[in-house]
Amino acid sequence: MKVLALGAHADDVEIGCGGSLLRWAAEGHELVLYVATNSAYAAPDGRPIRRAEEARREAEASAARLRARLVFGAASTFALACAEPLTAQLVELFETVRPDLALVHWGGDTHPDHRALFQATLHASRRCPRLLGYASNWYPGAETFEPRLLVDISETLEAKLDLIGVFASENGRTNGVWQTHAREQAALLGRQAGVCYAEGFHMVKYLI
User: Fold this and answer.
1) Nearest to residue 59, comparing CAs of 177, 163, 176, 174?
2) Which residue of 17, 19, 100, 167 pairs with 134 in a disulfide if CB–CB is 3.0 to 4.6 A?
3) pTM
């Protein structure tokens, strides 16, 4: 199986579906990671909070652990739009990779970059047989994330937390809150599925 995991920022896919990616990598599946933005951003006073070169180094380290090919987009953080050039780049990406399964932010995510990438992926993935949405944060919105497809990550949860830790520019700044959230969410979904830990996905389409 060839899996294409798309995230607006470096660390999104690791937070949202890192456990599943680790499991599939261990099973010998081919992984491609796409990061749409340079993932840099600054405080209102202009003080850098996350630098592009830091985010890229961390994403490269994570991809190496996943034995995945990494593709970076050229957009700036908070500037993604479901329009050219993003849609053209994604169409080319899907035609080149030809994934059996694509993973992207779920459509009800409150982050504007996440929503834009979801919408653009809907357009670009029209020939992809399977498209799932993951949740990479806990922020409430007008819709509720209710996963219906669950993946057992009991064997990869700890490695997922280590993957998130690779992104020191974010995880360190927030004192490990994303690792804590990932463990709590995996435990909740695991209880629902009857396993120790699980990741959940919103099904956009899934051809069997």
Assistant:
1) 163
2) 17
3) 0.96
